[in-house]
Amino acid sequence: MIQRLRxxxxxxxxxxxxxxxxxxxxxxxxxxxxSLMFVHYQSVKILESQFSRQVxxxxxxxxxxxxxxxxxxxxxxxxxxxxxxxxxxxxMFMLLDPVGRMLAGxxxxxxxxxxxxxxxxxxxxxxxxxxxxxxxxxRKLRDGSTLIIGxxxxxxxxxxxLIRNVSLAATGVIALLVLLGAVxxxxxxxxxxxxxxxxxxxxGAGKLGQRIPAHPRQDEFALLSSDINGMLDRIERLMxxxxxxxxxxxxxxxxxxxxxxxxLRTMDWDTAPRQDIRANVDRLSAELEDLVKVSEKLLQIAExxxxxxxxxxxxxxxxxxAQDVVDLYEAVAEEQQAQLTLQNHGDAPLxxxxxxxxxxxxxxxxxxxxxAGDDAxxxxxxxxxxxxxxxxxxxxxxxxxxxxIERIGERFYRAHxxxxxxxxxxxxxxxxxxxxxxxxxxxxxxxxxxVQLLFPSGLDANMDxx
Length: 466
Description:
By secondary structure, this protein is α+β, with helices and mostly antiparallel strands. It is built from 8 helices and 13 strands.
């Protein structure tokens, strides 16, 4: 039983939520105690000030009676004060003649240590034969007699005791509430954290589709859950991408590798003419180089989709990059008797990698030249809006059948298989655009294909927002 209790207490104390709540609660408790101490101190000072004023006023009044009626008049006034039943249980009087004999009063006290300057002191006395503690003022009169006036501090001590008891009770209640609040807060926080931990364990076990349930109240945990869900969405996309790459590589590389292996096995290295062997080796080398290019493309796409950057994004102008690409492909277009035009609607600034952006535009132009063939008409257009920077490439080729346009951009997918290629060009463009926080849209231009790249205007798009 003791071991179980010890383990339970150890588990509670190991909770960060419990310790955090307890620390703040202790701080609140200390703040409350300091406030109570301040109230106690100020209450005592106010009562002391009231007693002092009351005693000083009574002393002045008695001094005035002495000036008018002498010592006999003062004695008479003191007797009347003690007999009027007004504050008689707290008022203190003592009148001594010049030789120290008591003429009137209700206290017994040796005033030898009392200052006669009129300043107040707190002393223990006998009030009507009972021990009491009073605030006393002693004055020396003109004739050498001594007048002592005081006030019983019973009310002050009662108030002090009341405040002390209230403080102790409040401290106990606050301490209890502190512990109760720490335990309750720990349970609430642990419940919210447990949901996140359970989802993380399920994802770690391979269930990539698991997500943290949305909470109706948008507090810190809801924002954390949203960020974690976004991270899990991205991880799931990347994992699916890895699987797709693996499947695609296994499917598209197995055939040419098998073909090359069969060609190597069927070659007659001993009797075949040297020219035939050399021709077969050249064909094999060309196919291997082609496979190397495909592998490099796949690695580039994987790197882009992971969000990795080879260089920091900088401020660039998409219209200037497009102009450089057009200047580069003008000779190729003339050789194919194609027409390549560019229309810039003013500056088109954004933040990005100029080499990657130039590569994306070059890939689009290359694809348009390949699919549109001779007499191709390729038009590039850049524009800038308040929120987006746009680049559009339109050709007059065969376009894409409506049922296949959604799959364009997948690795190794080709809508027109009669045209040589590997189906990685637009996948690379799509990955570059997503790295810049943009998106790629395709539509039929009738005739031809229209590819539009949309980028955030002037933003550092470092995350995949899709």
